[in-house]
Specification:
heterodimer; A: 350 residues; ABC transporter involved in vitamin B12 uptake, BtuC; 2 domains; 2 strands; B: 22 strands
């Protein structure tokens, strides 16, 4: 499906995208909400109230807004972990494995090197997360580089390996017996990300995420290396014949993706949980791929789509609490938006 | 060459008529008000330069595009064609320049694909195969119905495509630039098949920009320019000069142009410095089958060295080895006396090699990119485009605007998606890219293939300019006229070996022909 989404798309031209795609997006969102609304009405739910909960929870209270930003951080990082390799036409479906690897690396540093001075520990912890995530992606990347093994398959499979690793670390290596759920002992307090807003708490991972968004944009759009990466993704053979080392770039793009996902893992550990908790990956992988596809791989659109999806997620949880409507309904909405955006593209091309 | 059958003396009837068709793509008007008439049992040449609207008109007839205005009449009745399915229902079939085939299906499977059978669940492939055999025999379209399409040469794949249309009972067959990828033998056999079709009552529309082919095979010729019909003449009344005039309009002064002046110029003084030296180069497949054997060449400063040969005699492999995209099995490649045999493409480009690939779309083009992104491919690591790790887009856009102007690339601007460029404009882009870099050695493979007359001339002018600047050029081409016009020396490639090298004074069509056919192994001088 991704092939259909992305073939024939221009390279990210920020303005062009906003102008030409506003129509299909508005239509896709409207139709998706309408379709799910009919469905919910048939089940006897109060549709207007459910929708106002979904859409406005994030904006009605400070708490809701901060919740949304907290979801936004891992989502945007993981979505970039998908779209950066995608620009080189490589498919990184291993974001959650790389996030878990990053979380493990970060937790390990936060627990083992607890005596380091505060700022050093924090930096070491973040770096450990990035490197662990990069390593987790480097395995499929190397298999692709050396043997030509399809990266879609290997990145997915590495996810399952990461589940086992996480379980082992949380139950065997540094288990916290007091917790009722597989969890490690907490990291040193010095390893926590400082807070940006004290109450409700918003950690500085938000700043990191925004900085990464800008850095990725500059890398892809303003550097020769980024140009080569996108050229390799646009036509690998032409790129190769014009002096671009496409195989090395494929490897690099996946490792970069892994590093971004690993960063997301360490930010979750250092900013939110302050320990490694099983389930740290949440449903971020699916959501992030959805974000990447709705944004059509455009790194400029990614943060906006990620924010919208985060808001819907927060709204859905609130709806579930107050109205007993399963939050998964929003996942249906997300999926339908993607489908309708794609459909309107196809129709427009006719 | 089979003799041309005389046109039906009983008064040829017009079977298809196109009236006042208009089609615009955004601001670009591809067809202004195009008319066209096709008679029964005729091969009708549709001649025109790049962007004249030939293919657009035929795509409308085949239901791929919808006309903004105008009508199509079949046997005097107006018909609506909304899709290729509609077109086929009316007996109109089309063979495109780029074939749409399932590579890992057999010939029969490809032909029968999408045809309704008697049962929804089973395909009577045995019957289909028999039908394919019958059709192939009837029209002289030799194919093995059971062969996998993937391994077939271009000529055979084209036959498959023609058979696809005939299998669907096409009465009108549209061929879009059918000879572009064919060897001379394949062209002959195609023309023979066309004659057989006409005898059986099929009419053929033959889209081409090659005047000689049109005059050779067509009963009538329609010339299009700028989205309009300029003239329609029977073959007997057609002459090259008149057709060229109709095709190019008043834009180009024919007599003064490089193409028609025959270019008399002094041969380059020999003994210049060798920019490219190839010594005993060999290239093999993974299984050790030799593709290029013991090939030695030298390109000197200010020289254009041609490589002639029938397609498939190692040209592609030689070029790929020279630009560093293919492993060599032996020999050396030196550029300015530096051994670059094992260097990658990037290092060769740094040394001033520019490359115009044969297969523009596959080997030279970023369809997902914009025009400017395409224009800097391969030179993006050099000044003024690169400043350290950063790309200077302002410099790139400035250069792109200049190149678009100078090379007359038809596009709204540097930021326009490259995917909207037409074939000829893509080639102009390739040229602009190659010539915009400080070029020591140009390697060009069939650079004018598929180009119209003004574009071809433009390419030739640029080649001569480069030669005068003292750069070396290796021109691999299947067009002998082109080689005779431009080259100081011509090396002939036959089965991966240099069969002979001739200097400008010794150019002789027949001699080169014999070398190309492997009938003579003249003393090879690199």
């Amino acid at each position: 499906m991704a092939e259909r989404v992305l073939k024939g798309q221009g390279w990210p031209g920020p303005l062009a995208l906003v102008v030409t795609s506003a129509g299909p997006y508005a239509l896709g969102i409207t139709v998706a909400f309408a379709a799910v609304g009919i469905f919910m009405a048939a089940m006897g739910f109060d549709v207007p109230r459910a929708y106002s909960t979904i859409v406005f929870t994030s904006f009605r209270s400070v708490n809701g807004f901060i919740q949304t930003l907290l979801k936004f951080i891992p989502l945007v990082l993981l979505a970039l972990a998908f779209t950066v390799p995608l620009a080189a036409w490589k498919f990184n479906i291993g974001g959650e494995g790389q996030l878990i690897a990053g979380a493990i690396g970060a937790a390990a540093v936060g627990i083992l090197l607890a005596d380091l001075p505060a700022i050093v520990l924090l930096l070491a912890l973040i770096l450990a997360g990035i490197l662990s995530g990069a390593f987790w992606a480097a395995v499929p990347a190397w298999l692709l580089y050396r043997f030509g093994i399809n990266e879609i398959l290997t990145t997915v499979l590495m996810n399952f390996v990461s589940f086992g690793a996480m379980d082992y670390v949380a139950t065997e290596v540094w288990p916290d017996p007091a917790a009722g759920h597989p969890t490690t002992v907490p990291i040193a307090a010095a390893g926590r990300l400082p807070l940006l807003v004290a109450s409700p708490p918003l950690h500085t991972g938000f700043i990191i995420a925004l900085a990464v968004v800008v850095a990725v944009y500059l890398y892809l759009n303003r550097t020769t290396a980024g140009y080569e990466l996108r050229a390799a993704g646009a036509n690998a053979r032409a790129a190769l014949l014009h002096g671009i080392a496409v195989h090395r770039i494929a490897l690099l793009s996946l490792v970069l993706g892994g590093a971004l996902a690993g960063l997301a893992g360490s930010v979750e550990v250092a900013g939110v949980h302050h320990r490694l908790i099983e389930g740290v990956q949440s449903n971020y992988l699916l959501l992030s791929i959805l974000i990447g596809l709705i944004a059509k791989g455009n790194t400029v659109a990614v943060p906006f789509v990620a924010f919208a999806i985060a808001a819907l997620e927060v709204g859905a949880r609130a709806m579930q609490r107050t109205m007993m409507i399963p939050a998964e309904i929003v996942f249906v909405v997300d999926g339908l938006i993607l489908i309708f955006v794609l459909l309107s593209d196809v129709v427009r091309r006719r | 060459m089979p003799a041309l059958p005389a046109a039906d003396p009983a008064g040829p009837r017009t079977m298809l008529e196109i009236r006042g068709v208009r089609k615009a793509f955004g601001p670009v008007v591809a067809l202004a008000a195009a008319d066209f008439q096709l008679r029964e049992r005729e091969i009708h040449g549709l001649l025109g330069g790049n962007g004249a609207g030939k293919t657009t008109l035929m795509n409308i007839l085949y239901g791929l595009y919808r006309a903004d205005a105008g009508e199509v009449l079949l046997d005097g009745r107006p018909i609506q064609i909304r899709s290729p399915r509609d077109a086929l229902r009316h007996g109109i079939g089309m063979v495109h320049q780029h074939f749409l085939q399932v590579e890992n299906f057999t010939v029969t499977q490809n032909i029968a694909l999408g045809m309704p059978g008697r049962s929804r669940l089973f395909l009577p492939l045995a019957e289909s195969e028999q039908r394919v055999r019958d059709l192939a025999a009837r029209f002289g379209l030799e194919v093995d119905p059971r062969a996998l399409v993937a391994g077939l040469p271009m000529g055979v794949r084209q036959r498959v495509e023609i058979l696809k249309a005939l299998y669907r009972d096409a009465r009108i067959l549209i061929l879009d630039e059918p000879t572009t990828n064919l060897t001379p033998q394949e062209v002959d056999s195609l023309f023979a098949s066309l004659q057989a079709m006409v005898k059986e009552g099929i009419s053929v529309i033959f889209i081409t920009h090659k005047i000689r082919e049109a005059v050779h095979v067509c009963h009538r010729i329609t010339v299009m320019r700028l989205g309009r019909r300029v003239l329609t003449v029977p073959r007997e009344e057609a002459n090259d000069e008149g057709l060229v005039r109709a095709m190019v309009g008043e834009d180009v002064d024919i007599r003064r142009s490089v193409l028609f002046s025959g270019v008399s110029r002094k041969p380059q003084p020999s003994g210049g410095q060798a920019i490219l030296r190839v010594e005993g180069l060999s290239v093999s497949t993974k299984d050790g089958v030799p593709l290029v054997e013991d090939c030695s060449l030298a390109v000197h400063a200010g020289e254009i060295l041609g490589v002639a040969g029938v397609a498939g005699n190692g040209q592609r492999e030689l070029v790929e080895a020279l630009i560093g995209a293919r492993q060599t099995a032996g020999g050396r490649v030196l550029i300015d006396d530096v051994d670059l045999t094992d260097a990658g493409t990037a290092r060769r480009l740094e040394r001033g090699v520019a490359y115009i690939p044969e297969d523009r779309l596959q080997d030279g083009f970023l369809p997902k990119g914009t025009v400017v992104q395409n224009l800097i491919l391969g030179v993006h690591r050099r000044a003024p485009y690169a400043r350290g790790a950063w790309l200077d887009w302002r410099a790139a856009f400035g250069a792109a605007r200049r190149l678009i102007e100078e090379y007359r690339i038809r596009t709204p601007g540097p930021d326009a998606p490259a995917v909207n460029l037409s074939g000829g404009n893509i080639q102009r882009l390739m040229l602009a890219r190659a010539f915009s870099s400080p070029c020591r050695l140009l390697i060009a493979h069939n650079p004018t293939r598929g180009l119209d007359v003004p574009s071809t001339e433009f390419v030739y002018e640029k080649f001569l300019e480069l030669r005068d600047r003292g750069a070396g050029t290796l021109l691999i081409s299947e067009d002998l006229d082109e080689l005779f016009l431009l080259c100081d020396r011509i090396a002939v490639l036959y089965r991966g070996r240099i069969a002979g090298t001739l200097s400008r004074g010794e150019f002789d069509r027949y001699r080169i022909g014999r070398l190309m056919g492997g009938m003579e192994a003249a003393g090879a001088r690199g």
